[in-house]
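# step 3/5: fold
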Amino acid sequence: MKIAEILNGAGLRVTKQRIAVLELLIEKRAPVSHAEITAALADPLDKVTLYRTLQTLKEAGITHQVQGLDGAWRFCAHDNDAEGCPGGHAHFLCLSCGRMSCLTNQKLPRVEVPEGNEVEGKQLIVYGRCSGCRGGK
């Protein structure tokens, strides 16, 4: 699915900023921080534009965010064709290097929410040491 189709399908205007950010998130296929996005974009966005773009994509259900060990939010793209990171899955966070990856085959467990409450999101982060930090074991 093309980026413009994803944006249009979510009812969003197609802008060069949204295209650039969404293309990058789909390409990375792992949670990416604001700083990593800024460093990777060929034509960097100012901080306010980047934050607004990410917020808009999140509110439209095109991306989701997860918090890393350093407290920084990281963003993943997801869509119905699973070109990016499919939503509703767990993440693995390495306690040594801080790298985060998507566990796309691991769906989030069902949780009973007390009556009268409304769920606005969910996430599961599995902590440990990645194979690189474990010496390739």
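# step 4/5: annotate
The two ends are 37 Å apart (CA to CA).
# step 5/5: archive (pending)
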